[in-house]
Amino acid sequence: MPTVQFTLAGHAYSIVCEPGEERRINELAHTVNKRINALSRQLPGAGEQLSLALTALMMADELQHIQQSPANQSAPPAPLSATTAPVIQGFSEEEVEQKVKKALTEAAAEAEQKLREALTGAEEEAEKKIKEAVTGITQEVEQKMQEAVAEALEQTASRIESLAKALETQ
User: Fold this and answer.
1) Is the pLDDT of residue 88 over 60?
2) How many domains are there within the chain?
3) What distance, in Å, lies between the first and last C-alpha atoms of the chain?
């Protein structure tokens, strides 16, 4: 069986495949690399594991939508043969599966932590803006109250003056 070598996210891999599948595997690796690079540009702070996990999830989601779409009448390309056995950097299929599960778990934990940090930052920013708004409104209300009190005092002083003049003329 032929062995295909390719690179994903800067890491070299080697898998055994059926004869004739080499080109397709390289095309798939190229497609996955394009997706990883696009996602990395959209999320520049995301780590490699998170980028890989999100890319895998997004591609699985797209595949599921295509498979479930009643409008899709054309048959998808044939999957790689069942006998294609990954031999990734000398690891068995079980070891690869364990490493992928571990990477996905770590990526999910990293994503959750980043989300918590973003939410905490957003909450703090919202609280700061609310305090600034309340301070501004309070100052505005105080100013209007002072103006209203000053106007009322002027009117009262004017009335007292008028009453005093009226009393003097009597």
Assistant:
1) no
2) 1
3) 125
